[in-house]
Structures are given as C-alpha cells and as structure tokens.
C-alpha cells in the first residue's frame, strides 16, 4: 500500500514538472517592449479570442484565428511568414498556449504571448480597432 502511494506521489510530481517545463517554453513579450519594437520591425499579431470579442476591439493588423491541433492549419499558416515574429493574445490562457504550441510545432520559432493580453495593451495606450 505504501509503495503504491509513493508511486502515485512521484507520478503526480513528475506531471507537475512537465507542466512547468511546458509553461517555461512560452516566450512572453510585454506591451511596452512590443510598442518599442513595432517602430523597428513588423509583428504578425494573432488574436485567439472569439469573433465577437475581436469585433469589439483588437490590435491593429491582428488576425482572428482559433488554431486547432486536430485540423489542417496549413491554409492559415501560408499567410504567415516564418521570418517575422508572431505575437499572440487571448482571454483564455489555454487557447493561447495551444496556439503557441501548434505554431512552434509547425516551425515558427519567434512566437510570443502578449503579457496581460489586450487589457494591458489598452492600459498602456496601445491602439485598438
């Protein structure tokens, strides 16, 4: 009984460690850094919120998309450049992480999550449309 419990505890600890590693693989970009870098380089901005939220407010040139691990995203990927950084934001952290994971798996290397999402972008004075 004790050895079974020990195995269960070790399994749970290893699963938690895997989650932490996965979270650490996500590169964050602050709204301030994005604003600064926008003057020097072009970002591809992806909004993974609902169509309604996107219609209410979105960052200039953002594309509204929900990427799906189980479908062929190649048509959408053809519109993106692997040579330009991608910034992703959304309301649901899981959707954002899923989109980053799919893009990185497909060979996009410079993918960032916008720290604080569109709310922090607006608070900083970033333009929305």
From TrEMBL:
Annotated signal peptide: 1-19
Keywords carried by this UniProt record: Signal
Record-annotated Rhodanese domain positions: 39-129
UniProt keyword Zinc present: no
SMART domains in UniProt: RHOD
PROSITE patterns assigned: PROKAR_LIPOPROTEIN (PS51257), RHODANESE_3 (PS50206)
InterPro entries, alphabetized: GlpE_sulfurtransferase (IPR050229), Rhodanese-like_dom (IPR001763), Rhodanese-like_dom_sf (IPR036873)
CDD domains linked to this entry: RHOD
PANTHER family: FAD-DEPENDENT OXIDOREDUCTASE (PTHR43031), OXIDOREDUCTASE (PTHR43031:SF16)
Protein name: Rhodanese-like domain-containing protein
């Amino acid at each position: 009984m004790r050895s079974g419990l020990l195995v269960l505890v070790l399994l749970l600890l290893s699963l938690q460690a895997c989650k932490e590693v996965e979270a650490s693989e996500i590169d964050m970009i602050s709204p301030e850094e994005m604003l600064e870098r926008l003057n020097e380089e072009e970002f591809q901005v992806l909004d993974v919120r609902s169509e309604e939220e996107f219609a209410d407010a979105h960052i200039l040139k953002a594309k509204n998309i929900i990427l799906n691990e189980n479908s062929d995203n190649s048509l959408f990927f053809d519109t993106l450049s692997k040579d330009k950084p991608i910034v992703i934001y959304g309301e649901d952290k899981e959707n954002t992480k899923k989109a980053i994971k799919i893009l990185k798996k497909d060979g996009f290397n410079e993918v960032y999550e916008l720290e604080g999402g569109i709310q922090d972008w607006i608070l900083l004075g970033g333009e929305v449309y």
